[in-house]
Amino acid sequence: MRILFISNYSQLYGANRSMLLVIEHLKNMGHDVVLILPSKGEICTELIEKGITYHVEKMFTQLFYYKPLLKYLVLPLLNLQTWLKIPHLVKFAKEFAPDLIYSNTSAEMVGIKIARRLGVKHISHIREFMDLDHGAKYLFGTKAKKKYINQSDGVIYVSNAVASHVNLRKPLQSWQKVIYNGVQCCDVPFVEHKLSDAINLGIVGILDPEKGQDMAIKYFKNIVGVYPSAKLHLWGDKEGLYKKKLLGMVSNWGLQNKVVFHGFEKRVDVIYGEMDILLMCSHCEGFGRVTVEAMQRGIPVLGYNSGGTTELIEDGFNGYLFLSEDEFKQKIHLLLQSEKHFNQISKNAYEDSRKKYSAEVYCKNIEEFITLIMRK
């Protein structure tokens, strides 16, 4: 089978990492795969190393999505740029002659258009809420967005939360399916933690209000009195006003020796190497790849009780969920009540995540869904 993938960005964040697993798996299974990117980026290095063909066509892949400040300023120009690129994309696609076009996350608008021009099948892989997590709304409203996405022959949702929101709480049909992301399990055995006062908390993700680093710092400030040797590690970066705000919070509260900004780091073993607890503070996480990455290393997660996080964490079994600062403090005290309890939660997280969210299970589910759609 010949499959043409389209991605909406060119960095190595969670959505593209998950897509790469699928592309590499399908390539190894003997399928011909090509990826279209809107620009060159760090993903290109990975593609070259894996021997995966890619094509760069500069464009705005999130056709018809807008953020309030962009609506009247640059959205018409960005959409016009994309419309002008469609003939070039169709020409490239014809030369590849795909049996299937597979759009990753918010690139589905472009993918559907190309698929219709070529008369081939299309799958949309919806990994984000878009409005709730990125503040990006569909130009013609939520009903029109649902109708447009459902022109696809198959739709994959990354979680039940995303499926319910994007499909407007309607029951899923046979050509719509929730498939949780998979993460390549690290080859490390479960090791019990030796707890001490020097607890290392971590939060991983691009510095953005939707990721909740400000919440993590605020809540951390109020538990330092109980755990004076604790530290909070921020992994990820993005220059701008939000980063300045975070640095200001740390400075104003005298936490310079307690909160560490590590910047962007793609080596996951470095990120999780010294971490005792992961904080997932995103209010609307579609799935939560970093949640699974931590759990697969036996690191318990304290997560905000919403979105896909709620589906990954079973409160009191493989982690804890919270909705308020008081609940956050209560749950962290429960988690740290004893070394025995901490290690039981840690072990549950390790075993549960490896069973449910392995790369093998994920890729198998995707391949089976593709086969189902192609037989329709």
Which descriptors apply to this entry?
16 helices; 43% helix; single chain; seven-stranded parallel β-sheet; 376 residues; Rossmann fold; alpha/beta
* Assembly category: single chain
Question: Based on DSSP secondary structure assignment, what is the total number of beta strands?
Answer: 15
Q: CATH H-level name of the largest domain... which superfamily? A: Glycogen Phosphorylase B
Largest sheet: 7 strands, parallel
Mean pLDDT: 94
Taking pLDDT < 50 over at least 5 consecutive residues as the criterion, the unreliable ranges are none
Strand order of the largest sheet: 3-2-1-5-6-8-9
> What's the alpha carbon Rg, rounded to whole Å?
21 Å
Helical/strand content category: alpha/beta
Number of helices: 16
Ends apart, CA distance between termini: 15 Å
% residues in beta strands: 15-25%
Shape, principal axes of CA atoms? globular
Fold-level CATH name of the largest domain: Rossmann fold
The CATH architecture name of the largest domain reads 3-Layer(aba) Sandwich
Roughly how much helix do the residues carry, as a percent range? 40-55%
Any idea of the CATH class of the largest domain?
Alpha Beta
Number of domains: 2
Describe this structure in words.
- This protein is an alpha/beta fold.
- It folds into 2 domains: 2-182 and 358-375, Rossmann fold, CATH 3.40.50.2000; 200-356, Glycogen Phosphorylase B (Rossmann fold, 3-Layer(aba) Sandwich).
- The protein contains 16 helices and 15 strands.
- The protein has helices at 14-28, 43-49, 68-71, 75-96, 108-118, 131-134, 142-149, 160-166, 213-221, 241-252, 268-272, 289-295, 309-312, 325-335, 339-356, 359-375, and strands at residues 2-6, 32-37, 53-56, 65-66, 100-104, 121-126, 137-138, 154-157, 176-178, 200-204, 231-235, 259-263, 277-280, 301-304, 319-322.
- Helix 1 packs across helix 16 (359-375), helix 4 (75-96) packs across helix 5 (108-118) and helix 9 packs parallel to helix 10 (241-252).
- The protein starts with a strand and ends with a helix.
